């Protein structure tokens, strides 16, 4: 899911850039694509602690991505993609559930 989300973020960022919304576009591109990269790194973690640590980074990136999307939603001169907002909430729940499960084992 995080890979498809990254692709969707790239598409949305292209729309932001067409409208010359470069600052948020850049921030959103970094955080939105970083989620999947950190999840992937976690899958190859060297230890349980490393796995959890990398997933926590992914969770932070997801929170940041949600923030940038909320700014787009709340700013009258910015485009908004409601599907991305729904998807990031699902991703956050999944990541947090995995972290919780990993900690309890």
β-strand number: 0
Alpha carbon gyration radius:
14 Å
CATH C-level: Mainly Alpha
| Class by SSE composition | mainly alpha
Strand content: under 5%
Count of individual helical segments: 4
Mean pLDDT: 96
Q: Write the CATH architecture name.
A: Up-down Bundle
Counting structural domains, the number is: 1
Sheet with the most strands, sense and barrel status:
none
Which runs of at least 5 residues are low in confidence (pLDDT < 50)?
none
Would you write up a description of this structure?
The chain is mostly helical and 105 residues long. The chain has a single domain, classed as 23S rRNA-intervening sequence (de novo design (two linked rop proteins)), CATH 1.20.1440. It has four helices and no strands. The chain starts with a helix and ends with a helix. The model has no long low-confidence stretch (mean pLDDT 96).
Summarize the structure.
Helices cover 85% and strands 0% of the residues. It has four helices and no strands.
Give the tags.
single chain, de novo design (two linked rop proteins), 85% helix
Give the secondary structure arrangement, pairings included.
Elements: H1 2-18, H2 22-43, H3 48-74, H4 82-104
């Amino acid at each position: 899911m995080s890979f498809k989300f990254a692709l969707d973020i790239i598409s949305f960022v292209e729309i932001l850039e067409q409208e010359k919304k470069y600052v948020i576009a850049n921030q959103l591109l970094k955080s939105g694509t970083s989620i999947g990269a950190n999840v992937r790194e976690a899958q190859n973690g060297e230890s349980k602690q490393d796995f959890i640590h990398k997933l926590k980074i992914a969770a932070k990136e997801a929170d940041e991505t949600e923030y940038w999307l909320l700014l787009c939603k709340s700013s009258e001169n910015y485009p908004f993609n409601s599907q991305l907002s729904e998807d990031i909430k699902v991703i956050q729940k999944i990541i947090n559930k995995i972290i919780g499960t990993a900690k309890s084992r």
